[in-house]
Design a protein that fits this description.
The protein is α/β, with parallel strands linked by helices. It has two domains: 315 residues, Alpha/Beta hydrolase fold, catalytic domain (Rossmann fold, 3-Layer(aba) Sandwich), CATH 3.40.50.1820; 140 residues, Galactose-binding domain-like (Jelly Rolls, Sandwich). The chain contains eleven helices and 21 strands. Helix 2 packs across helix 11. The chain is globular and about 70 Å long. 51% of the residues are buried. The N terminus is likely disordered.
Amino acid sequence: MMDVLGRRVIVAFFACLVALAATGRASAFTRQDLMLHMDDGVDLAATLYRPTQAQQPSAAIVMLHGLGATRQQVDPIAQRLADTFVVLTFDARGHGQSGGFVSVDGPREIADTRAVYNWVAAQPYVDSHAVGALGISLGGAAILRSLVEGVPWAAVEVANTWSDLYAALAPQNLTKSGAIYALTNGVKLDPSVQAIEQDALLSRNLDSLRQWAAQRSSRSGLSRITAPVYLFQGRRDFVFDLGQAEAAYRLLKGPRKLYLGDFGHSPSTFPGPDIDTVVAEGESWFRRYLLHVPMPSVRFPVLVSPDPWHGKPVAFKSLPATRSFKVAFPGRSAFDMRGKAQRTGRRLRTRIETFGPARVRVKAKLVGGWSRLVAVLTATPRQGKTIVVSEGGINTSGMHGTRMLTIRMIDDATLIPRGAKLTLTLGSSSLAEDPGNLLYLDPPMPAGAKVSLGAARLVLPVLRKPVSR
């Protein structure tokens, strides 16, 4: 799971996507490798594609890759677009052939993004009023933040990314330490990131982490954005969940569209079976808003891929309606860091499809400096493997005595088949559910730390009408 959470997931996704996108197409463009010089002396390696038959000046697209990747992973999809658009791909600071270090979309990277935009818009063969951007994960967040800071992208597409980095990686003040380790391991981190890395892994000095993340987030400024934005997010992404894209979708004031698909960070698998639809949707968006090609009006701006995929997403005029599905998990448990509480309910009488963040409410007695509680919800069907439906945790540092705790879990969309049994596991980390579940790691607590738990109650938001079968 650690590798799945990391950079290889992003690379695999784009490799599959672009292989599909390039199938059966003849190319008509020129290609040039170059270096872009930033104002602090760092050079960014880039590749420029220019269509050979397009009218000039042409619309342009800048492509930004994910954390730990390089422009080579997005170059093939650039080649698909380069028949029509001027396209620039580049290695982000601290990646590939570029100089510098990675500060995870900090002010320096946003300055780079602005500089790249300015360079492209200034080229005589580019229509400066029709420069768009496409980014995934780290690259998508840079695009959203640059929009907030005034970079005038004409249209953008972002995938598998965040709008609020602190809320994504430290919900309820407990960091997804396994995800953070996987995402940053092996990356050339800037000293400013190295300085807070241990705090991020150990969920401490949270005010500093919150301020650091705020500089790398866009949510607070998205209500001012009127540029066309297409958000692609995975149904089951335990790093950057559905809520990151849904919050952005609600705030944006310009043309907007939201695609919730069968892809994402772990526990999703790659390639996503809906890749051809993702490619078509993305290309159509740029044709509409960069080339101004007449197209039917967007009457249903929210698309949700079913799981398993059957060839077509389900379209909605707004985010689909949900209802609350409630499950009681009676019992009493007391344990230290080596223990856990695991409770299983009755078999479901009908299939349900979660859509949104589940919540677990449990009475807890915290003793000896017990500092966190992690909940993992799994579903075991009559046949087949157990499914991790969702998970979440809460930081209880500084709490003692008896408390009523509410754990907000990951915002995802998961089909749970009829006849499945739901199991709730509560412990000091996600490893309590399974040693291979590394989302929430298990740093030490004081030797006398213990917790006693009473009955738990789960509230699952589920679709009123499931899109999956």
